[in-house]
Give the backbone structure.
Amino acid sequence: VQLQASGGGLVQPGGCLRLSCAASGSIFSINGMGWYRQAPGKQRELVAIITSGGSTNYADSVKGRFTISRDNAKNTVYLQMNSLKPEDTAVYYCNALIRRSWSTSTNTYWGQGTLVTVSS
């Protein structure tokens, strides 16, 4: 199983970006999916998560600005980021709880990270 993240880049304050993360490989089912970020010199932190049923939860710092969504048919999770601030600068990682077959347990998989830089 692989998670491939994309969509990062350089954006000015107040701008927007959309991150995507597609899961591929031997997948029976995907439970929760999420986005985390790690800024230089800081620990990785939760940004947003979404359950298989579509329930969401956000870090207080991004509420009202970021929206997480998923396309179950494409095994893909998205993060729409609006009103970006310099403090949003970080490497963003996607994460998914995946079951590879009916007889295996659920494991956590991580994408490779995509850099988001918010700067003028």
User: Anything to note?
Assistant: The two ends are 37 Å apart (CA to CA). Residues 37 and 92 are 4 Å apart (CA to CA). The first strand starts at residue 2 and ends at 6. The mean pLDDT is 96.
